[in-house]
Amino acid sequence: MSELPTLAEAADRIRAQTLSPVELLDRCLDRIDRLDGRLRAWVVVDREAARRAAQQLAIEAVRGEFRGPLHGVPIGVKDIIDVAGLPTRAGSPLRENHVAAADAPVVAGLRRAGAVILGKTVTVEFACFDPSPSRNPWDPAINDAPRHTPGGSSSGSAVAAAAGMCLGALGTQTGGSLVRPSTYCGVATCKPTYAVVSRVGVVPVSYHFDHVGPIARRIADLELMMRCLPADDDFGPRGAAAAPSGELDFRRQAIRPPRLGTLGGFWEETADDNIRQATHAAIERLTAAGAAIVPVETDVNFSRIQPMHRRIMGVEAATVHCEDYRRRPEAFGPLIRRLLDEGLACSAVDYAAALAELRGYRRRVARLFDSVDALIVPSTHTTAPPTLETLTGTSEFQAPWSAAGAPVASIPSGLAADGLPAAVQIVGRYHDDRRLLAIAQWCETVFDFDNVPPIAREV
Amino acid sequence: MSELPTLAEAADRIRAQTLSPVELLDRCLDRIDRLDGRLRAWVVVDREAARRAAQQLAIEAVRGEFRGPLHGVPIGVKDIIDVAGLPTRAGSPLRENHVAAADAPVVAGLRRAGAVILGKTVTVEFACFDPSPSRNPWDPAINDAPRHTPGGSSSGSAVAAAAGMCLGALGTQTGGSLVRPSTYCGVATCKPTYAVVSRVGVVPVSYHFDHVGPIARRIADLELMMRCLPADDDFGPRGAAAAPSGELDFRRQAIRPPRLGTLGGFWEETADDNIRQATHAAIERLTAAGAAIVPVETDVNFSRIQPMHRRIMGVEAATVHCEDYRRRPEAFGPLIRRLLDEGLACSAVDYAAALAELRGYRRRVARLFDSVDALIVPSTHTTAPPTLETLTGTSEFQAPWSAAGAPVASIPSGLAADGLPAAVQIVGRYHDDRRLLAIAQWCETVFDFDNVPPIAREV
User: Which of A20, A92, A132, A153 is labelled catalytic?
Assistant: First the structure.
């Protein structure tokens, strides 16, 4: 078997005992050996622990014993999320020695479901803005003079999943940190409804916007991972109460062509030609397959979300880092420093006013779904820009949904005119995450995009 | 019928057609005429609208048509909550002309259930600290030289319900504004789980602590009102998702003697002798009736909640009032001015740190219920103090639960040694409000306290 199985395919084969967890792990390690010198997706690969886990899971599989939906599947974990025994470096020199005593609940959930935790993937410094060393597997010049950013901040998770160095990965999003790198690298991701998935054991950026989510090649892969992620335990049982119903049998659900809302305005005007054309093409294919595409009227001014988002993120990031920042400002990169300076200068009243604005925005977003099943908008306003050294892109198209807290699935729709991947975000009703994934899977089937980058085919 | 029916009794009699909504309204208006000169519970009594409503509801009742559980029941509304066509003065000279265009959803919910909205009850200025003119119906000197505060900020609602000028009333709590006046006035109240009941159309004090709740003589009365209060619509469907189940048939539920946790420490040390004795007596009676009383171990330091609560409340109140306050500082009372000054001087990072502390506190409170059905603590640390002109009391014993957001029912347990009412708070699991009310009703039956104040018996 030389082709690259998706996570869901690999999980099925392991269960059918036609693929061994050890063989699958070896294939991932082989890809890491061949590709990661160029792609730089990993901070640490814990080969020994992964091999021991895979061997144990292989023994169980032979006996017909399976721990859960991810039995034997190698998974990468963004390096701001705790994995017991490994440092959580968060892309910062300040955290060289922060060895995690315990798994974050999301990691523990994956392990319980049988996942092999393969290692820690590269993150942008404290999951903010200053670029990481990771590279974009779709960059045409990847082998000599790479120029296109893989996006951030979950750079390593997106790169590793795209190149098949693992079958799925955990990332986080505060602005655009799941959707942007996933789009630039041609993989799928979902950002769950706000506060549905546990954030314990994750280095915080901004309480009101931080989300943990999975990255993988296909929506079915994401759905398997989502099933294993425990609920947020903030505010007593609220997280659990709000968790999506487990009743819906995702894989078997016969989804009818959905009714998808478009937003026009800001989304049309901000997208560049590459993305505008790719999005129109994607929508045409969905329409041809039977989807109803409906313009949604709204008084929400999406171009005004960014300052509110930045103010809240700046204050909350400053709250997390203020002690370290006052002690060792030089240990922070230039982009995060600007953010922290803004946060430190803000008054409580201005921050509280931004939080009130956020609540009003969330109420208005909730009404966008009155007449449609989900919204469809481009995932990014450009394809991966040639800013490898300077910027991981910007979050114009992702931050509105991080702020809203509505669930998002991002699906690569194909290659744009410039040969780089484009994707669409399907945005669903609050707390209806599983239905959103089913809708996104319907769209993915229509797009039928083979999202393995050329570099990953060589292997 | 000369005795004073409770809300639930009156509702039953109206349904049985042995009491007419018009007769009931007249009885309330008669009490207002005789008592409110001394008690000062009302800002405005809307006699004409109330009479029209009662007449219409009486016609329907004769036909055997009943709108809902509150058909024909006169209800008072704290004057920070919008009632269509009446000003929402919020106890401030700044709001003389703020006539509400529409009912707040909570008021609309009561009306839909058949309530007669009788008028607006006195609130402390902007529901904060500076005393209102209302007086305590239990004050032994009520007829000549009243000295004991009725508590605040829902002063008028507690006084009106205690004196039978209405059968129930809406109030709000940010620190102790439902539980403290209800305790001082000898009536029952419940503060629902945070963000379960709508706050739209209510003048805000502090987003993270504001709760709307009912005040009445008995728990069964509160339960009827709670059924009619619509869910908070913040963050899409979250409020609704978190709303207590309507399945439990509260009145018929056979509650077994509950397992109640005590907290000792801060709660024992802060209470004065009157309250300590009254609480011990209450707990002894519950024990004799079969309740299990269990000391709960906790690392929560309840004496440290107050500064965190005050910081958040100050910032959020300043956010609400900053424009008016900068323009007309002299229009604000001395106690709220100090609060607003603190809020305006706070940095965003310090406020955000307080919010993070709040979240950690809520998680720890959630764990207090691991081994008990509910907690029992005194409602106040003293009975109504003789500070009618200067202070409505302080919120040491109420603010911890406003901050926690856990649901609370406060029940008068009897008269303390000084002849003034004492009460206990039963604190329940998050989102389990209906079960909490059932437990509180069990306790109330054990206490069997006739909570009609002497002044209300004269009428």
Answer: A153
Most distant pair of Cα atoms in chain B: their distance: 61
CB-CB contact of B257 with B290 (8 Å): yes
Q: Report how far residue B254's alpha carbon sits from residue A40's, in angstroms, rounded to the nearest whole number.
A: 64
For residue A243, the model assigns a pLDDT of 41
Q: Which of A241, A349, A430 sits opposite B315 (nearest CB)?
A: A349
Q: What is the pLDDT of residues B61-72, one digit of tens each?
A: 999 999 999 999
C-alpha distances in Å from residue B444, one per residue of A368, B143, B256:
46, 30, 14
**Is A206 one of the annotated active-site residues of the chain?**
no
User: What CATH number is given for B7-300+365-457 in this structure?
Assistant: 3.90.1300.10
Binding-site residues on chain A for chain B (CB distance < 8 A)? 194, 207, 233-238, 241-242, 315-316, 318-319, 322, 343-344, 346-353, 355-356, 359, 362-363, 365-366, 405-406, 429-431
Cα nearest neighbour of B341 on chain A: A349
- What residues pair up with B168 in beta bridges, in sequence order? B75, B216
Read off φ and ψ for residue B365, nearest 5 degrees. Answer: -65, -40
- Nearest by CB to A347, from B347, B353, B366: name it: B347
∠ CA A372-A376-A377, nearest 5°, is: 140
- Give me chain B's average pLDDT, please: 94
Chain A CB contacts of B207 below 8 Å: 352, 355-356, 359
Task: Provide the residue ranges of all domains of chain B, joining segments of one domain with +.
Answer: 7-300+365-457, 302-364
Reply yes or no on whether A132 is catalytic.
Answer: no
Q: What is the pTM of this model?
A: 0.92
DSSP letters, B160-223, are HHHTTSSSEEEEEESSSTTHHHHHHHT-EEEEPSTTSB--TTB--S-TTT-EEEEEESSHHHHH
Are A405 and B235 a contacting pair at CB < 8 A? yes
Distance from C-alpha of B85 to C-alpha of B99, rounded to nearest angstrom: 6
Quickly tell me which residue has 């309530």 as its tokens: B115
B233 contacts in chain A (CB < 8 Å): 363, 366
CB hemisphere CA count around A168 (13 angstroms): 33
By Cβ distance, the residue of A194, A352, A362 closest to B315 is A352
Please give the pLDDT value at position A366.
92
Mean pLDDT on A252-256: 63
Q: What angle do CA A202, A437, A366 make, to 5 degrees?
A: 80
Burial of B448 (0-12, 13-18, 19+ CB in 10 A): exposed
Q: Which of A157, A177, A182, A379 is catalytic?
A: A177
Contact between B431 and A233 using a beta-carbon 8 Å cutoff: no
SS3 A35: helix
Q: Is the pLDDT of residue A202 over 70?
A: yes
CB B109 within 8 A of CB B230: yes
CA B29 – CA A154 distance, rounded (Å): 66
Residue type, A144: D
Number of Cβ within a 10 Å radius of residue A280: 13
Q: Known catalytic residue: B206?
A: no
